[in-house]
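User:
Note these tokens:
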Amino acid sequence: MGSEGETSSTQRNPTISDSESVHQDQATNLIFDKLRPFISNFNKELVEKKLNDLGVETLTDLALLEYKDLEPFMKPIQFRKFASSVKGKRQIFSHV
């Protein structure tokens, strides 16, 4: 029985890494989906490189970005709209 437990534990490790890989791919797609409407001439490779350089890994990381981080990709007003959208809908509708 001890060897069966070890086998199932060993089998879980590849599954966990596969799951993490899928989760990371989904997170990356969600990040791009959030940014795409605010960036004209969206170039996924350039944006992905910039976000990787900045250390963005999750949607919540997007709220930590500053205009200077995305200046090459969007104008100030587009950044403000983007920033409002990632900080929460409650903040956006608080002025309505």
About this structure: DSSP finds six helices and no strands in the chain. The helical segments are 2-35, 44-54, 59-62, 67-70, 76-87, 89-93. The chain has one domain: 2-93. Confidence is low (pLDDT under 50) at residues 2-16, 89-96.
